[in-house]
């Protein structure tokens, strides 16, 4: 079984491939309430027919052992099969249709090439959506080298399409851990080219450069990091005084947070439950544990579809909000016997205990929208008196001696990562923020950013939002001079104080 | 246009399997506004892991050519593979958990065996849910022989499980048309056993008996018919004075209608769109054509998830309801350029024309929730200047010469039959109604029912509903004597006049 | 204390004026589930500043004792004060703005004067809205004489405005019962003019003509009746074979029913509760007794504003709908201790008993949206151990010996009649239906209508709806010839079968 | 524009009583987006039957000229009429029922008397709700002297009830400005008693002490300020280095903000529109200008009741939220012709201009939920060609030469202050926060608070919330030791980082 992540000498053992797959999303303490929702392997598969085509190939040769050349004669890449480029191009074109913010960024910034001179080394999921980002960076003047942040998530045909157009990509689906670090190394360590910008998702690339090529940081103008984990690592570096370049925390930008949590969960909870269980929502008794943004999104959707929802909370302020929003606030033990569905969104551990699982009624569905795989005490279910029956992918029936079945989804891992897809529109917001962060750091006058971790300037948050408004045919109102003066605002924003709660 | 219900000599060719699959659901004029939403092949597949197991077998021998015996030594059945019985049993047990109304019917009526003496020949989809119905009928005292109403919809392992317990089942997935009628014939034409009740879905069984064994009707106490098509045929027979036994129209019972249309569409529109396109609903501009029950269900769900919905209507009363419910009422041509999604729910034809398809914006999704495949003028899209690209199962991109893509779902056929599943709970309501209709007809004193088509008595509608209330832990209030007297009602119902609009 | 209604010799005793005021709305058995929601005295007051102006006059002279002449020299009327005509005209003009359906009816039908020759005697509430109706009838060619159906509800200045333009009106606010019948008599019994149409609201006018001037019916082409009570009387007459002219039941037309119940209650429950108690809805635990149209309207609104709503039902079908709509279905006794608000919408009696009132928590609000004043057992609260404290108009605190207070609204009478207003738009629908019913009956070819009670033809229901669509800027779609043929419909409707449930 | 806060020598003239009434709520720049929503005169009236009783008295003698003594023999107060104490007591008791948080605070803190030794001088609206606060402070050990922050808002009978129990109150409804400052002076400047805490609403009391008795600040441990205006003044003092004691900004506490804006507006927009116009919401086209918390609250309620809502925004982030929440984002000029209702919630000026008013359709309703009276350019309507017609209290018809009427509510002032009421529950949250702020400042160890403006510690925010949960019968979950450790949280909170967006 493949193992990724961690330095060779500090290897970590993973129980199985699925845990592995979520590795880079283990939220740490610092980020526990703002979970990153990246695209996962399973979701990728489900919306890529080409992927299944390419995966069915019987080609077992390691890409590292193949000699491949693109149509321009370059061999500075390593992908599964360069011949899949055409399929990948189609995927990219489809993604472009929902990522018009990046396309318009290309157009707006094209004249000035704000990334002319930028040499970006990137380590992200390699999907059609990332390809749109990478090609946008190129269009803005950057040179890019790219590798995957996850050994399973690469869309091979997309990697091929990028390689075909001349972006040195080193990634394929199903890398070994050795492959993983080899790919990163091939991105960074190349003759005659030295990165001056880093775009990272998870912090592995940054970690590698720190360990192996610290001198690279002399030229690097900044790091842009997207994940909770990576951001946490950066804050730790900063705290330890070891961060030697400015870094931009993209994960916590307002638009990303709201979309990744409230709105995205509003949509994905229904999808995740339907795809796995074909449940009818009307009249179902549901308890949602936790009424943060994730919980709010879940509750809104479920209530709207006719479920009868109650919530549990530890925080009286969130509890008061739940009351005002029309949800009963209960203790889990008070209602557990009656519930048809139990959903955890707390970011905590053991929110659903074995004792509560024992008290659930027959047919109760249990799933987790919150925090990796800690919220439901799944381990407690792996005991001899209980029978596990896998009835469908991501769906287990846990059977009690008396015949009672509890339906556990995704073995307690994140439901929406495992069993639903992330809309391209959400990925577009993240990608646009990443592009703007790179532009900002690359072009910032010296001294604007120190060796610290920054949030994107508010005005750029607003710019990201404004680039996405055309998707909705939304028309912004402009302040008149008189109004701007009255409000004490610049007509172009920012429009709110930093402490504003959207 | 192809019609199925011919006999051998009027055989028809089907363009392809998918048309076939829906053929028994072509709504006729009479039923056009209350479309039957039965389980489809695709939905069956998606929730039956066992089915895919059995389908992957390479066994190409026709079941008709096999000699099979169940563990009790009987060979009075014809299924794909009797050895799959165990898998089928598990599927049935899972279905039982969501069909507690039938289970409680078994319990309540068990003592008296209200179907003792009943000999029921049935022709329905053969799925886990129908199996629960059949086994309920048996538990109530009936003898049953069963066949499939659709050549594709049989769950082979369920058929095997039924055959194993002694129910003579004649059905498998992928029958030829010849097989289809052969199976029906084997059900009806058996030595030493003559049906006295018919349970039909689509009218083919009834048709067969009329054509081949009219004398059977001398003993038949009644027909119970579930589908729009079958009911239409019965009304035509009745009108022509040819209906020679009482028939019960199960399709138009209140509970079935409300669940099949309003509530079921409320849930399935989201599911169908998500599974095919991964669309984000928030902020999407959607036009729903038609504001009947189906349209109301779609609009409710889409609005709740943040879509901006407008509707088109021909009927001023429905239009006024749409206004009061907060939807703009527009003509399609007025808004077509701005729409992200177009959904037809009218029961009419050519609601979306080629001219309107030409004016849609790039990326517009078009689908049909209403009426077979007539609502969108799909034929007009099969012209040389347009390119069709199948991007996923049930998803086509139609590409205009200028590169514009319109995303057509299920080739204009019913989205929720093709791309989502029907909750077991809805099927439970139908099955319970069928069981009660059989009991009613079988036990009715002579003279209560003439040679005509009847709706289930209101009190039985209420009984069906009451059997499903425990699923929701709902507690009915009982009238006091004084209140019943004041209202002029019997304490046990019926509670509403016949003309009441729920 | 004034007494109205009933023939002098069959006088009925009323407990007090407020009961009196609702008298004509006592639903009878036949109509008990479709309660008429007419404008009430209190609601009239609250939206008429002019009314309060005129009411404050100290003029105690009976209108019957005054000699008044309008500016055209006519004295064929009897109103409070003809000089208030100008104020009344303004009220009428304001009402016209929200009754554009009638205005457009005037325009559309003006050329042909469909009521030319009609001599209509009317007995309704006399308000600005009715005035718009009356003046529409006149514009369509009719001659009208008018009187009030309620001794309290007349807007004096509106009556004056009508009298000023030449409509013989006999009505004022605060009539004695003797006045009431005198006014009716003056309308009917006038020299040289004999009514050929009757428009009634409550049946008193019809009753009077039957009793005193039966010969009038020789010329009468039809009766149009709006109220539950009046319609009930007509059905009784019909059943008894005593109905000697066709009658049109306006009360049960689809548009009126839906607006009067579902939509109107959706709006008025919030208004009624707020105006009386200033309650904050968010988080309130509410039980709604009865999930018919009235209950559905209440529940929708309360849930939307953040209340936590559960319902009680006797009918399993409605209970199942409540479940699917996301409401817990409970017995009142199970939840009564926790509730903040109890609302009755059943049409039954003693739904809230003294025992339940005893168990309510301190501060619980109790009110009735359903049926006159029978639903809450208010009588049981008039016992010595309880203290009543009137804290505001229509708001009583009932105080238990331990200090617990229950807040009773409108003494258990209809909350929305007593404590909120009826939108002019709803009255417009009723008035338009009345006008069309008159046109239909007056112009119907002989033989179309027998001596029976009829509902408005479906096509006219649709016409009423269509006349109200411009208020919403709604644009109807028209069927193409091809589509109409396919559907088997006339392009101009009717669009639905009679049994259709909107 | 008039400003109140001058002292005698800088006296200002008020245009009329209504301007006066709102003057202490003029938001200043700093606070413009978080408008304080205090109780207003009109709202007070509407829920106090006693008030109207007492107001109808013909007693024109100035309270300053009366000699009054309470039943304990004290004359250290000045109220309208001490004999009204009993009526006031009933009002206070009713208010107590909805302010159980304060009652429970009394109970919880009673043993320790956390305000023993506190001498609080207060200047707030004097209403039943404030009386509950004052009596809570007394129960916690404080001595209080009190005056009114608004010359119109005092409930005379409540002032009397407080005076009767021994609280020196100096306030009556309808003070002159001279009275206003005289009352403040009598509170502060009293022999043998010197305040050590200040509770202010608007900053007038604080201002007075600064100007006249600066030495008082030597003993004052802190100021608690509730209003936007007062808080703004404190920040200015602080900035200017003139703040000589710690001050607590109660206005910006999380619970107050959320309730005053989102939730409170969600409820009051419907109430304000209904009470003034009896509008039916269903199908109405509404544009809401501004999608901050106030706008969000308005939009949620209106959409839920069937209105068709679009919004205008200047801020792309809020605009994106509006899109995701299902509202079209438009420019006002694009839609103004079609709208039935226009609502401003921006905090800006001239959002609705004369040009837009000219383009509105007949019957359009215009009102302001946002910012004092600047949002609608009402001044532009006071021109000779337009006719104003007052049709009801707070409702004007502006009539164009062609007869078009625009319905202007509250002359463009805040609709919910003028035309609806503030729920006691919201006032309870504010009052509880004030009490806790006083306890915190009074008991804080020296050095915890400097001469600066503070927000209430997060933990106390949570405590305020927790005190209000019993109103909803909400049950908080407690962290286990293990969970608390895992989350790095104290089991008693605070539960969120300071930057958390609820």
TrEMBL record, chains A, B, C, D:
State the free-text cofactor note. Answer: Binds 1 NAD(+) per subunit.
Q: Which residues form the signal peptide?
A: none
Q: Which reaction does it catalyse?
A: S-adenosyl-L-homocysteine + H2O = L-homocysteine + adenosine
Listed binding positions for NAD(+) are: 292-297, 313, 416
Q: Which InterPro entries match?
A: Adenosylhomocyst_ase-like_sf (IPR042172), Adenosylhomocysteinase-like (IPR000043), Ado_hCys_hydrolase_NAD-bd (IPR015878), NAD(P)-bd_dom_sf (IPR036291), S-Ado-L-homoCys_hydrolase_CS (IPR020082)
Domain S-adenosyl-L-homocysteine hydrolase NAD binding per the UniProt entry, residue ranges: 261-422
- Which pathway is recorded for this entry? Amino-acid biosynthesis; L-homocysteine biosynthesis; L-homocysteine from S-adenosyl-L-homocysteine: step 1/1
Q: Does the keyword Hydrolase apply?
A: yes
Residue stretches of biased makeup (Low complexity): 36-55
Question: According to its UniProt record, which cofactors does this protein need?
Answer: NAD(+)
This protein's source sits in the domain of life called Eukaryota
Query: Which keywords are on file for this protein?
Result: Hydrolase, NAD, One-carbon metabolism
One term under GO cellular component: cytosol
Q: Does the keyword NAD feature in the UniProt annotation?
A: yes
Which residue ranges are recorded for the region named Disordered? Answer: 1-73
Q: Where does substrate bind?
A: 127, 201, 226, 256, 260
| E.C. code | 3.13.2.1
Pfam families of this UniProt entry? AdoHcyase, AdoHcyase_NAD
Q: Any idea which GO molecular function terms this record carries?
A: adenosylhomocysteinase activity
Basic and acidic residues bias locations: 9-23
Q: What class of enzyme is it?
A: hydrolase
SMART domains for the chain: AdoHcyase, AdoHcyase_NAD
Identify the NCBIfam families for this entry: ahcY (TIGR00936), PRK05476.2-3 (NF004005)
Q: Which family does it belong to?
A: Belongs to the adenosylhomocysteinase family.
| The protein's name | Adenosylhomocysteinase
Originating species? Betta splendens
């Amino acid at each position: 079984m493949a193992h990724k992540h961690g330095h060779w000498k500090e290897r970590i053992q993973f129980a199985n491939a699925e845990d592995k797959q979520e590795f880079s999303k283990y939220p740490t303490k610092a980020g526990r309430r703002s979970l990153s929702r990246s695209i996962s392997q399973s979701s990728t598969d489900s919306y890529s027919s080409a992927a299944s085509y390419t995966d069915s190939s019987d080609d077992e040769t390691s890409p590292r052992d193949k000699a491949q050349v693109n149509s321009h004669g370059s061999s500075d890449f390593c992908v599964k099969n360069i011949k899949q480029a055409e399929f990948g191009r189609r995927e990219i074109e489809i993604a472009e249709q929902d990522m018009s913010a990046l396309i318009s960024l290309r157009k707006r910034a094209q004249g000035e090439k704000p990334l002319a001179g930028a040499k970006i080394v990137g380590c992200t999921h390699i999907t059609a959506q990332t390809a749109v980002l990478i090609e946008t960076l190129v269009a803005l003047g950057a040179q890019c080298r790219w590798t995957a942040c996850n050994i399973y998530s690469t869309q091979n045909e997309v990697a091929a399409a990028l390689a075909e157009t001349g972006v040195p990509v080193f990634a394929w689906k199903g890398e070994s851990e050795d492959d993983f670090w080899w790919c990163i190394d091939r991105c960074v360590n190349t003759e005659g080219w030295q990165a001056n910008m880093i775009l990272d998702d998870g912090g592995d690339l940054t970690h590698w450069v720190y360990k192996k090529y610290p001198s690279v940081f002399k030229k690097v103008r900044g790091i842009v990091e997207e994940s909770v984990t990576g951001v946490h690592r950066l804050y730790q570096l900063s705290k330890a005084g070891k961060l030697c370049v400015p870094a931009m925390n993209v994960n916590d930008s307002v638009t990303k947070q709201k979309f990744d949590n409230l709105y995205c969960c509003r949509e994905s909870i229904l999808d995740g439950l339907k795809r796995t269980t074909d449940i009818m929502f009307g009249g179902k008794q549901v308890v949602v544990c936790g009424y943060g943004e994730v919980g709010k999104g879940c509750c809104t959707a479920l209530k709207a579809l006719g479920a009868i929802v109650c919530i549990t909370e530890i925080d009286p302020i969130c509890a008061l909000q739940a009351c005002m929003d029309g949800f009963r606030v209960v203790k889990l033990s008070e209602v557990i016997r009656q519930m048809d569905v139990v959903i955890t969104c707390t970011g905590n551990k053991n929110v659903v205990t074995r004792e509560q699982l024992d008290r659930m009624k027959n047919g109760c569905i249990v799933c987790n929208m919150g925090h990796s795989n800690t919220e439901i005490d799944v381990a407690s279910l792996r005991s001899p008196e209980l029978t596990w029956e896998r009835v469908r992918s991501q769906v287990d029936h846990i059977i009690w001696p008396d015949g009672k079945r509890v339906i556990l989804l995704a073995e307690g891992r994140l439901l929406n990562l495992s069993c639903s897809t992330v809309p391209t529109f959400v990925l577009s917001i993240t990608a646009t923020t990443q592009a703007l962060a790179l532009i900002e750091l690359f072009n910032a006058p010296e001294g604007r950013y120190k060796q610290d971790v920054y949030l994107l300037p508010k005005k750029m948050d607003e710019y990201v939002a404004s680039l996405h408004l055309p998707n909705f045919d939304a028309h912004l109102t402009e302040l008149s001079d008189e109004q701007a003066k009255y409000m004490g605002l610049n007509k172009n924003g920012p429009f709110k104080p930093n402490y504003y709660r959207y």
